[in-house]
Amino acid sequence: MHWRNLRYVCLLFTLLAMGSQMEAKVTESVFGKTPDGTAVDVYTLQDGAITARIMSYGARVLSLETPDRNGKVADIVLGYDTLAPYLHDSTYFGSVPGRYANRIANAEFTLDGKQYHLIKNDGQNSLHGGSHGFATKVWKGRIVPHGVEFTLVSPDGDSGYPGTLTAHVRYTLEHNALKIEYSATTDKDTVVNLTNHSYFNLSGEGSGNILGELLTVNADRYTPIDAGLIPTGQLAPVAGTPFDFRKATAIGARINDDNEQLHLAHGYDQNFVLNGKPGTLSEAARVVDPNSGRVLVVKTTQPGLQFYTGNFLFGVKGKNGHVYQRHGGFALETQHFPDSPNQPKFPSTELKPGQTYHEATVFEFQVER
Ligand code: GLA
User: How many domains does the chain have?
Assistant: First the structure.
């Protein structure tokens, strides 16, 4: 072959290699089996130095490896090594809770004049759809470009919720970001609220607490809670409170302040009213870890963001022999506000036949020198 032709062949191979680098590599394997013998699959999404593993049980993010400022990769989400502990898990590690993420007061709500009773799994309240919610279901996965899409059909009356709800959660890894797109349709009027419940520790899971990580939240207001962690209905200004994260502040800087809201939740466990326009993808939060240089940017179309500092983690036996303690991770759960079905002034979470619920959240990974 003439050397000039060889040059073109080399160029072609380089372009092909670049092309394949631009598309995340997605592989599928078996993670385990539920007690009734249902196979649980794990999908590995790899794009450059970032690798995400996501399983069909609870549509959960199992691991998320990202580089630090020196290019050293670590897994930055809490979780377990095997399926068994997920089957008895109360932390919601990495999951997509549903049909209604977060709390519904007294586990009941009224829709079209009819009262619906849900499962009480948090005192008198229903949390994350109840004890048999979406985080405990085996979703059906299929590989899509750059990722995986999970589907769950929740029958009419499932855990007390009306209507057959068909939900899809699509995870894609592209441009140093994990994108999560949620969609759902129903055959009867119902309510829906989906989120992702990953616990992050930007220094790496099991590396201690997250109190030194710097948080910014794009919210002027938050929804204060009562003793049952149910919003009082108020949209209170963050100004002058430990909830003012409009400028980057260490998560632990005010967590032990003598503040009623922090006492009620044993740390942060409140919903922020995001300043972004609902329905438009905009920056909700940013976390910078001075230690590793990792930066997490959260963008969403959702109106709210639950900031939770792992207040109920007490010696959870996690991955790689690590034991997770209180504040060993934080969750930034993009969502509609808690208890919206009972709070007429909150943005509506109703979904009617013919409508499609659609929300998106992006977790973007950067490094700071
Ligand atoms: C959510 C809630 C918390 C807690 C966790 C799960 O983040 O807001 O109060 O229940 O889920 O432990």
Answer: 1
* Average pLDDT of span 143-157: 98
Q: What is the pLDDT of residue 1?
A: 52
Q: Is residue 160 over pLDDT 60?
A: yes
Whether residue 260 lies in the annotated active site: no
Q: Which one, of 335, 338, 341, 342, lies nearest residue 357 by Cα?
A: 335
185 HSE (CA, 13 A, CB side) = 6
The question of whether 128 is a catalytic residue gets the answer no
Dist. CA 65–CA 54, nearest whole Å: 12
Lining residues, ligand 1, CB within 6 Å: 91-92, 102, 127, 229, 269, 306, 308, 312, 331, 333
Active-site hit among 197, 322, 327, 336: 197
Concatenate the DSSP letters of all residues of 4-70 into one string: HHHHHHHHHHHHHHHHHHHSPEEEEEEEEE-TT--EEEEEEEEETTEEEEEETBTTEEEEEEEE-TT
pLDDT number for residue 128:
98
Give residue-wise pLDDT tens across range 214-264: 999 999 999 999 999 999 999 999 999 999 999 999 999 999 999 999 999
- Rounded to the nearest angstrom, the distance between the alpha carbon of 181 and the centre of ligand 1 is 22
- Which atom of ligand 1 is closest in space to residue 269's alpha carbon? 8
* The one catalytic residue among 149, 205, 333, 359: 333
Please report, for the domain that includes residue 207, its CATH number: 2.70.98.10
* Confidence bin at 23 (pLDDT 50/70/90): confident
> Which residues constitute the domain of residue 119?
1-369
In the predicted model, what is the mean pLDDT of residues 171-189?
98
Instruction: Give the model's pLDDT for residue 8.
Output: 57
Select from 121, 122, 127 the residue to mutate for testing ligand 1; criterion: most ligand atoms less than 8 Å from CB: 127
Is 298:305 a contact under the CB 8 Å cutoff?
Answer: yes
Q: 3-state DSSP call for residue 157?
A: coil
